[in-house]
Predict the structure of Porin.
Amino acid sequence: MLKVIALLVLTSSTVLAQTRASDDNTKNDIRYNLNNSGSHYVKVTFTNQTWLRLNDNNPGTTVLSNPENQTFDIGLRRTRMQLFGQITDRIFFYTQFGMNNFNKISAFPAYNKAGNASNRKVAAFFHDALGEYEVYRKGTSFVRFGGGLTIVNGLSRFSQPSIGTIMTMDVPVFAQATVDQTDIFSRKLAVYSRGQIGKFNYRLGLADPFPVETSGGVPAALGVNSVFAQKKHKKQIDGLLIYNFFDTEDNTTPGYMTGTYLGKRKVLNLEAGFITQKNATWRREGADTLYSSMNLWSVAAYADMPLNKAKGTAVSGYLGYFSTDYGKGYLRYNNSMNPATGTTQPIAGVSGTHGNAYPMFGTGSVIYAQAGYKFKDGLLGSQGTLMPFASLQSADYDRLTDVMNLYNVGVNWLIKGQNGKLTLNYENRPIYKASTVPNELAKDGRKGAWILQYQISI
């Protein structure tokens, strides 16, 4: 056992394994082969994303009780370690351990919500822990069943993103619809099936969502607007169906769909997905408590393909429509790694409006689009190449008087592909105030943020 652990930690150039044609798991990396061909193996990966950010804060923002119009912070957006492997031809396991959104105030809210001393050393946790069994394989087609703590779900490819291969600065978090409400950073205890049948890729699951009371924060109070319910707990059903026009995608790990292949594959997909849960939210109407089902679905197209293989140029794009019905009046503010702790200008009917937050989730609909262009390999000589990108989240939520448009533009410096890259991004978001229409929010200008990210991934 000690020899195995040592090899996992120290070996960075083992045998180039002969694995399935549909997998990208064929490079020299930190792995220990369990048979001569390398088809049975155990593998370790590590990813770290460091952010430097200058943010124009929302009106009334405070940081540790001090008013702050602008903040500069340093943080770890994600730090993750994966341990997974193919134990036999049919048995696969996957685990992931790490932390997210760790900056100087990441432990501070615990003091306010729980009334206990905060602890900045408590941040990492298991994201995934599951096992799979393959019941069928013929060529690149397969059917697998699995279960455990997993991100596998139905709504869209960006509901289960591979964070080490993101093209944009960050994923569209709104697609991780219940993040940190009834899940653990989008992961749930679930059983599922996933597979590739010819040109069709599918996943179908049954999840047991966590009670919102265990989210680490005080659950939203029962009121006129829908919030996640604290009674009548029900299971969640989800499914995703993808049609691959050209190449199939990497199917090594469950969930975790690639952001961009950097022109290494010719991919054009159409997808449709859904998540549904009975009695997911509740609200008060007069003296009555009313329950609503959560019904979310999406349709989208994704393209990622080379333009000139000899030069290494490539394009990547995504366009999706999301219908997001959480129940009447549902609206939730959020954003990545909020640098602030409070506000002196709260907005009635919503919470967490400080710092860089915006109405990320809501009952209504969303159009999301992103596009990028990879310049030729060696554009910067031995220092790699560039890939500029842009994205738009356009949300028409019921409680907003106007469409919410969130813009991101930036550029990746691909020093060593996705293994070593530097990303500069500008995000422009709307800010809101209480509207003259009761229970609605109206635009009150815009704010921006500059983010520099350094990613190391092995």
